[in-house]
């Protein structure tokens, strides 16, 4: 036998206190008084009982001591050792992507899964339970929680984050935390194939709760819009993922005002797609396409478009240093090299990077000019000084060495200088001019090199009020003014979403839609779009992999608590104490 709560040993002071009380208790003698004259004297203390004599013929004392000692014994948590089956803690992996908003009957797939999790948590009350949500970065909501109320509260708080589940990452994460002790893993998703579990792990069992019922879904696969001389043209691509012909209607709305601009009915065959064209729309900066159809998933029935300078193509003059092209490729842009004639043909459709100064007077869009082809560079020495401008908000260029500079342009704003001579300028149109050749600097050796070109690209696009297109919860730097107040995000109906100290810490909202970004009082717009993988609903049978947990033969030493067996004797002793006290009376 052992004791589980030896920390309660301090309670031994209570029976000791009772024992000391009986040692020093005063003794009184009941005397018949013939006159009140001697009453006071007779009731005085006659003597102190000898220590051991107080313990003789005192049933109440023994009853009290027995009750206290039994209570002390119970508080110490007595147990008998026993062999038990080693428990593996339960792990819930919960898919919270956009596709889990699809309805199966009256409830969404996520709500159905939450009901299953509540039932499992109730069956395993007191066991360790971990809850993990999926995404690019799997998140632990509770870890090895044994309090059933805390587990149920975490389940109730589960909600969609619309981010693609990246289930392989989630499973790798589960393996990393459960490989030592094992786990019973339950995965709640719309569909997960058995092929994902090619590598088995000893001690881990997998139960996949798939969506087993095929659902009806018609999705807006793509939406495109371009400005024209007369306004805007848009194309909407629809896909019918069901096994029956479907009919419905598509509405085009101005997302800034909420006004309906056009509508068009459609009919689409099973497992087919169709294109709808909308012409003669007014000039727009943000629009949405809304699909009205009877299906089980409304998450992909709306798509959003920002219309403006969103070009991701860069044309680099083939006369420039090769590292310029590499820098643009490093930031994820589509880069091609071209001649003067090729750049002239594409100057309003792509971002131009050249040393041809004549392009400063051509086209309607700003360019990035690196060096000059109409003059010679002069040697220079000194450190780089920059002004407070958002072009340098992401990365500083103060440590760059420049050996020579070209003459500056008159009337242009100087953003950086070397020894008082202009190094980087900006034209009134928004052109960015670097007054040196890359080969005349050590700039490519610095981390700021590709970051500067990213900032330049964002600055060249900044002629419009568009921040960019994001996926739910995407972490991506945005170019800001660098003010101390940070940037704020609001919905189109001015509901507050979040605040970020700087553009480098920006995280896109989770729910798809158009949002306002407020930077130093200036409003811009950003779009959050569902990923293509979240525009379809899969289904399949649920399955179980690995040996059932109940069949495990691993043994561990358990504890069979026996303290509760002594509660009844304690109650009986208290009852006897009361009866002794009642019969003897308080004077005795």
Helix content: 10-25%
Which CATH C-level class of the largest domain is it?
Alpha Beta
State the major sheet. Answer: 8 strands, mixed
- Tell me how many strands there are: 35
By DSSP (H or I, 4+ residues per run), the number of helices equals 10
Looking at the overall shape, the CATH architecture of the largest domain is 3-Layer(aba) Sandwich
Cα radius of gyration in angstroms:
39 Å
Give the low-confidence spans.
Answer: 45-56, 549-553
The count of domains is 5
Strand content: 25-35%
User: Overall pLDDT, averaged?
Assistant: 84
CATH superfamily of the largest domain: von Willebrand factor, type A domain
- Structural class based on helices, strands and sheet pairing: alpha+beta
Shape type: elongated
* Annotated CATH topology of the largest domain: Rossmann fold
**Widest beta sheet: strand line-up:** 20-19-21-22-28-27-26-24
Q: How far apart are the first and last residues' alpha carbons, in Å?
A: 41 Å
Domain Aerotolerance regulator N-terminal: 1-78
Transmembrane segments: 6-24, 59-80
Domain VWFA: 90-191
Keywords: Membrane, Transmembrane, Transmembrane helix
